[in-house]
Amino acid sequence: MDTSLEQLGQNIAHALPGAVREARMAVGELTIEIEPGEIARVLKTLRDEFEFKLLIDICGVDWPARARRFDVVYHLLSLTKNARVRVKLEADEETAVPSVVEIFPTANWFERETFDMYGIAFSDHPDLRRILTDYGFTGYPLRKDFPLTGYVELRYDD
């Protein structure tokens, strides 16, 4: 399977010139690193030309020491190929990542969750608001600089 995934990574990189930074294998999984502004084109191509029809999830990774602090990670599944692919892009705190809700409607809640937990904004999202925390919540709980005790002190009372 590794050699076919490696070949798939090369085919994807060849089909998306200027969008793919790197296609690499690690622990038997294919990871495609892309330019941030190219996410819609990459996912549309993976869906339409490479048969990755299912968006499994979108998540964030916080690297506070890096200039582009966040990784936004998309996991796709192809049932016909029996294969998964991970698509990664780097993002900073100020620049919004293009939304992919038009390509994969399931991205709606995944992008909202990523926004709520990390503060990563998605441009052209139809309803980008908090989904897991309260509307008055301050901060982004999965960032590494978020205090373990939170910003509000609560006291338990029987």
Description:
The protein has 158 residues and is α/β, with parallel strands linked by helices. The chain has three helices and seven strands. It has a five-stranded mixed sheet with strand order 1-2-5-4-3. The longest helix has 14 residues, at 2-15. The model has no long low-confidence stretch (mean pLDDT 92).
Short account of what is shown:
This protein has helices at residues 2-15, 39-48, 107-118, and strands at 20-26, 29-34, 54-62, 70-78, 83-91, 97-98, 122-123.
Features:
158 residues, two-stranded parallel sheet, 7 strands, alpha/beta, five-stranded mixed beta sheet, single chain
Q: Strands across the major sheet, in which order? A: 1-2-5-4-3
Helical coverage, percent range: 10-25%
Tally of DSSP helical segments: 3
**Cα-atom Rg, whole angstroms?**
17 Å
Shape call: elongated
Instruction: Give the total of beta strands.
Output: 7
Along the chain, the helix and strand elements come as HEEHEEEEHE
Query: Beta-strand percentage?
Result: 25-35%
Averaged pLDDT, please?
92
Which stretches are low in confidence, meaning pLDDT under 50 for 5 or more residues running? none
Structural class: alpha/beta
Distance between the termini: 57 Å
Major beta-sheet overview: 5 strands, mixed
